Amino acid sequence: MNIVLVGPLMFFALFTLWNAFVFKKLLSFHRERLPEKPPRVSLLVPARNEQDNLKVLLPSLVAQDYANLEIIVLDDHSTDGTRAVADRFAGRHARLRVIEGGPLEPGWMGKPNACRQLAEAATGDLLR
Q: Residue 9 has what pLDDT?
């Protein structure tokens, strides 16, 4: 092995071992630790001309196994098939709903305006 590669490889090996022993392991999380009624989580997705990205994103969101979850997609006046993709997923998954974005409020920029509308529509204790 090239001597130039040994140093970085040793560093990464030691770094990995350090992380394995020092940081809390994800496997130590137990669902029994969740409160009796877990908080409602709202996953908020502002979307403008995102039809291709939604085809990848939405399957992973609806696959989440957290029980108290809602997913809201806001179609922000898209000119592609964003709304059709979102509606198709919403028709198959009760936890997902699609809302139409309202007009751009004076003094607001596009994405913050969409996020504000999503937050107003959300029913969750936690917004993500």
A: 74
Residue 70 belongs to domain spanning: 36-127
Contact 71, 110 (CB under 8 A): no
Please report, for residues 46, 55, 85, 106, 128, the alpha-carbon distance to residue 50 in angstroms, rounded to integers and kept in the order given: 9, 9, 9, 24, 18
- If one counts the domains in the chain, the total is 1
Find the CATH number of the domain harbouring 107: 3.90.550.10
- Tell me the pairing of strands 69-75 and 96-100: parallel
Q: 40: Cβ–Cβ under 8 A, 6 or more apart, which residues?
A: 68, 69, 70, 123, 124, 125, 126
User: Which letter does DSSP use for residue 64 in this model?
Assistant: -
| pLDDT tens, residue by residue, 95-119 | 999 999 999 889 989 899 999 999 9
What tokens does 49 get?
């001309």
